[in-house]
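User: Hi! I'm working on a homework problem where we have to compare a predicted structure to a textbook description. Could you give me the structure for the chain below?
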Amino acid sequence: MLDRALDGQATNRRVKSEDNDDPLRVLAVPIRRDGQIVGVLEVGQSEEDTSDVLTTLLLVMAAAYPVTLVVAVLGGVFLAGRALSPVDQITGLARRISAEDLGQRLNLMLPDDEIGRLARTFDEMIGRLDGAFRRQRQFTADASHELRTPLTIMKGQVDVALQQKREPEDY
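Assistant: Happy to help. Predicted structure tokens:
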């Protein structure tokens, strides 16, 4: 290891200590000054210590992962519910609006985002439909009134004509 470190290569290896049954992980790194190797730094650490740290990390991750997953799912459900609640409001109000009652509006105070613009566009559409239905009702009423007068006159003439007996050609 020392020869390799003196050649400029960092190396590591596993070493068994004579006074301890604990294996060590040893790293040898060359020390450079002005581009030349002036020495070697050799450090070691007990593999048992590393194993203990890794075991603790594994236990922490095993406990934290499910908790984090549950928190993330619950947070996602909560945020999705809050984000979609205006859509649910719009849907409920839209179901209550019918052709006979187009005077209702959503009138939701929403920010100027996609949902807010959707609600305002829906209100504008209902307004246009309300105007169209009113014009159609007015036209129907006007047409009905205009047709009643000539029909009444014709009915009166037919009644007068039928009051006296005449030949079929005269009728």
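For your comparison, note the following. The radius of gyration is 46 Å. The helical segments are 2-6, 47-96, 114-162. Good luck with the assignment!
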